[in-house]
Amino acid sequence: GENVEQHPSTLSVQEGDSAVIKCTYSDSASNYFPWYKQELGKGPQLIIDIRSNVGEKKDQRIAVTLNKTAKHFSLHITETQPEDSAVYFCAARIKAAGNKLTFGGGTRVLVKP
Amino acid sequence: EAGVAQSPRYKIIEKRQSVAFWCNPISGHATLYWYQQILGQGPKLLIQFQNNGVVDDSQLPKDRFSAERLKGVDSTLKIQPAKLEDSAVYLCASSFDGNYGYTFGSGTRLTVV
Q1: Which of A38, A57, A99 best probes binding to B when mutated, by most B CB atoms within 10 angstroms?
Q2: Distances (CA, A) of A30 to A65, A69, A73, A74, A93
Q3: B44, A104: Cβ pair inside 8 Å?
Q4: Cβ B26 vs Cβ B103: under 8 Å
Q5: Buried-most residue among B13, B36, B92, B103 (CB within 10 A)?
Q6: Shortest alpha-carbon distance between residue A23 and chain B (Å)
Q7: pLDDT (tens digit, 9 = 90+) per residue, B89-108?
Q8: DSSP letter string over B63-79?
């Protein structure tokens, strides 16, 4: 089955700096990679996603890159703000496996003002 | 559009008792998922429905967990009898066709004492 590893588990950055979270996946058949932000007491919220036919996607201060050869993908947050503080999860999906999303272990991001 | 609704938000029960969670997905979403999120970990899939049929329940502890989606709309997840290790947040998610755009509810936080 699919296995997704996420690093780092915690990340502390100064406001205005960039934050990068990296994930690796095990199954080369994975074809969809969403990123979720989870705030305390809430469910995960989709913030950006990328499909396997694209190498990079950007949405304002958030970008995701995908390296299919190395089987890893990364989330980049630029100009971080205090409201970016949350837990971020990456996930990978294998279409052939019934569209099941497998999640990484999460990264707790703290943006210090 | 209205999001994924879950109830109750919190539940505290003693071990060996039973408990049920309810989920109402986004209108028109055919695919519904139940995830278990233990504190400090990423969500883990318990069961996936496509309309009222089960697509994947390989990670569901069937000796104590059951789920149904009788009319292909809302769903219930039951635990009987509960164990201490079942303490977690139970998240429901839905997707229009199971391909992309999974939307999560706020979850039910279960504490087993």
Answers
A1: A99
A2: 15, 12, 12, 15, 5
A3: no
A4: yes
A5: B92
A6: 13
A7: 999 999 998 778 789 999 99
A8: TTEEEE-TTSS-EEEEE
SS3 helix, strand, coil % of chain A, rounded to 5?
Answer: 5, 60, 35
Of B43, B44, B56, the CB nearest to A44: B43
Please indicate whether, in this complex, the C-beta atoms of A32 and B99 are within 8 angstroms of each other.
yes
Distance from CA of A17 to the nearest CA of B (A): 25
How far apart CA B2 and CA B55 sit, in angstroms, is 25
Q: What is the pLDDT of residues B51-90, one digit of tens each?
A: 989 999 999 999 999 999 988 899 999 999 999 999 999 9
Please state, in angstroms and rounded to a whole number, the distance separating the CA atoms of residues B109 and A56: 36
